[in-house]
């Protein structure tokens, strides 16, 4: 069995590739990073190191790679894969869609079997987004055949994998915790299950709980920590003011999630505490600028700040801490992050209120916009 995985980066090697390999797949990574592609081709294996007192090293065998910039090679692998996964970043999905569409055409010409394509990105409905990009590249007739042969189940992935600075370009250090949830309703029957994956009938509560707790809490730590001049998440969570803000933001998303999905209050509180403990892992060095990366994406309407804040506001809930975090996100001006630079340019050009309204999709005069502006001024 062959799995084709787009993105041999941190989560690709440290999580998805590992689980696919443990499930019996030969894993072919498609990536645009020449060093990583060559190393995977030459060695055919790599190691995942667990960031805890065990410092366990898990070997991952039967892996290889292709150059993601070569459309013909990508299409050939898509045509013959038994499973396709991605972890390239949600904004990069449109760039891998042409190779996938070309491969699907080949696959259909050859009468290939059914296929699942699962985007493992931090976004609601990432596989569905990829599906739209791919379908737009097929003719109406091809689309009709493709929908019966190719399914794009949405998923939620959770494992903190920081930026890696090892001598070995393939080694990857990961936290011990992981969770991968896939929407079974969007899958064909008789699938080869991936070991360690939790299949559910309704993914929305899972992806929202993950994104609006792990990722809301994480970016709250990053933006508050950045503002205070810290470099790592571990430094930031030792600061009482930062941790109070993070906890406050998670109480706000938590109340919203409990009301929306009926999670038990005590269980959700326990979930929040466990997530915050993961940020305190002393064996993991996670940079604030990684966690805060792409602030425009993080301030977009469906992402970890605006969506839970708007839902909480619609429920009549409190959003004070979330508004502060959004204001801090607007101040994230890290010069090496393209979106942070673009964000600061937008603020300089249009003013902060207009820039925020354009990015978040909220009205200029919305009560939430006003509270973000008040916090920004403070
Ligand atoms: N790192 C984490 O803790 C974590 C956890 C859960 C989910 N995620 C999500 O996983 C995705 C990847 O994150 P990451 O941290 O692994 O990032 P990363 O930058 O380490 O990995 C992305 C990889 O995609 C490759 N890539 C870029 N364009 C490509 C293309 N056109 N074709 C093939 N490969 C291409 C890059 O070269 C890189 O190796 C993101 O959506 C992220 O939100 C990350
Ligand atoms: O990958 P992003 O930029 O969406 O978010 C940064 C981190 O919060 C994220 O990568 C977490 O480490 C991960 O989502 C944990 O499961």
Largest sheet: 6 strands, parallel
Arrangement of strands in the largest sheet: 5-2-1-6-7-8
Tally of helical runs = 17
CATH fold group of the largest domain: Rossmann fold
Question: Unreliable runs, pLDDT <50, ≥5 residues?
Answer: none
Question: In a few lines, what is going on in this structure?
Answer:
With about 375 residues, the protein is of the alpha/beta class.
Question: What this model shows, in words?
Answer:
The chain has 378 residues and is α/β, with parallel strands linked by helices. The chain folds into 2 domains: 2-201, 3-Layer(aba) Sandwich (Rossmann fold); 205-377, N-(1-d-carboxylethyl)-l-norvaline Dehydrogenase, domain 2, CATH 1.10.1040.10. The chain contains 17 helices and 12 strands. The strands form 3 sheets. Strands 5-2-1-6-7-8 form a 6-stranded parallel beta sheet, sandwiched between helices. The protein has a 3-stranded mixed beta sheet with strand order 4-3-10. The mean pLDDT is 98. Bound molecules: nicotinamide-adenine-dinucleotide and D-Mannitol-1-phosphate. Residues 6-12, 30-33, 68, 87-90, 92, 95-96, 121-122, 157, 159-161 line the site of nicotinamide-adenine-dinucleotide.
């Amino acid at each position: 069995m062959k799995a084709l995985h787009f993105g041999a980066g941190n989560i690709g090697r440290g999580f998805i590739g590992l689980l696919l390999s443990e499930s019996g797949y030969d894993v072919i990574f498609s990536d645009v990073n020449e060093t990583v592609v060559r190393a995977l081709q030459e060695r055919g294996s790599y190691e995942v190191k667990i960031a805890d007192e065990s410092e366990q090293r898990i070997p991952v065998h039967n892996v290889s790679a292709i150059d993601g910039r070569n459309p013909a090679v990508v299409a050939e692998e898509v045509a013959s894969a038994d499973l396709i996964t991605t972890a390239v970043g949600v904004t990069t999905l449109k760039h891998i869609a042409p190779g996938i569409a070309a491969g699907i055409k080949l696959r259909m010409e050859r009468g290939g079997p059914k296929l699942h394509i699962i985007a493992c990105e931090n976004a609601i409905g990432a596989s569905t987004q990829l599906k739209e990009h791919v379908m737009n590249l097929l003719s109406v007739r091809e689309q009709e055949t493709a929908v019966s042969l190719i399914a794009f189940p949405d998923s939620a992935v959770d494992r903190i994998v920081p930026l890696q600075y090892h001598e070995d370009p393939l080694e990857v250090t990961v936290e011990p915790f992981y969770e991968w949830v896939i929407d079974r309703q969007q899958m064909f029957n008789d699938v080869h299950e991936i070991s360690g994956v939790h299949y559910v009938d309704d993914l929305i509560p899972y992806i929202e709980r993950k994104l609006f707790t792990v990722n809301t809490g994480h970016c709250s730590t990053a933006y508050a920590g950045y503002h205070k001049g810290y470099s790592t998440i571990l430094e930031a969570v030792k600061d009482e003011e930062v941790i109070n803000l993070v906890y406050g933001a998670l109480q706000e998303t938590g109340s919203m999630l409990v009301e929306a999905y009926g999670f038990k209050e005590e269980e959700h509180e326990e979930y929040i505490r466990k997530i915050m403990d993961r940020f305190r892992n002393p064996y993991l060095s996670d940079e604030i600028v990684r966690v805060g990366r792409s602030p425009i994406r993080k301030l977009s309407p469906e992402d970890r700040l605006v969506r839970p804040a708007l839902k909480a506001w619609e429920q009549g809930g409190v959003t004070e801490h979330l508004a502060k975090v959004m204001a801090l996100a607007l101040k994230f001006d890290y010069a090496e992050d393209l979106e942070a630079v673009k964000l600061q340019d937008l603020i300089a050009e249009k003013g902060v209120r207009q820039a925020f309204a354009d990015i978040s999709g909220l009205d200029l005069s919305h009560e939430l916009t006003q509270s973000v502006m008040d916090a920004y001024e403070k």
